[in-house]
């Protein structure tokens, strides 16, 4: 599908974003707002959703603020009803909300596994199921935020890796399933960048959290950079988004030489594997 035809198909300029009260979700909301879109800003924290909704209005968009917990199907249904009633439908939906964790498989509790999969993977499933009927009507676009962790699968963060790999796999399935309905799908796999993801972090020791923070602080790309790439991918109907030259090079290395990539991952993550 050509870029210009995709832009025409999304002419209603209506987008809803989960986890839009901060970080990447906020940057996505502002990116589309500056292009004159109506933006449904959803977040588990009502205050954050309302604050960003105000920023969306100031940036040239038209905002709707909605409290949404991705663990609750009823919250997605309520959002779908409100968007349908007030806007007459939806053109783009972004499953963005997520949490982070680190820990060896042997150290991570079943409760933490359940928490991670319920929010990061099943939250994406719930959002997709709730919004796809409207996206089919508008021949719109679905965006899922995964992570480069879904590709690298580094040690010491297995629960997060598995959840995000599930999002990537789900997105590939949806891309094929929704093709006949005219719905485009994008999955974003950003590597580390500065965000507030560590606010919800769960880990088995403080050293792992410190390592993740260090990697985020060293990142050369920002949440705004990632949002800009996702925005372009939606308009151009591109599937896989891997922001940053280094991450794209690493992706190619894994595909061309998996053992070389494995050795590099081991060297870079030695501290993750020590309890």
Structure characterization notes:
The protein is built from eleven helices and nine strands. With 275 residues, the protein is α/β, with parallel strands linked by helices. It has a single domain (3-269), classed as 3-Layer(aba) Sandwich (Rossmann fold), CATH 3.40.50.720. It has helices at residues 3-9, 23-34, 46-58, 73-87, 110-138, 149-152, 158-177, 206-218, 223-236, 245-256, 258-268, and strands at residues 14-17, 38-43, 62-67, 92-95, 101-102, 141-145, 184-188, 202-203, 240-241. A seven-stranded parallel sheet has the order 3-2-1-4-6-7-9, sandwiched between helices. A two-stranded parallel ribbon has the order 5-8. The longest helix is centred in the middle third of the chain and has 29 residues, at 110-138.
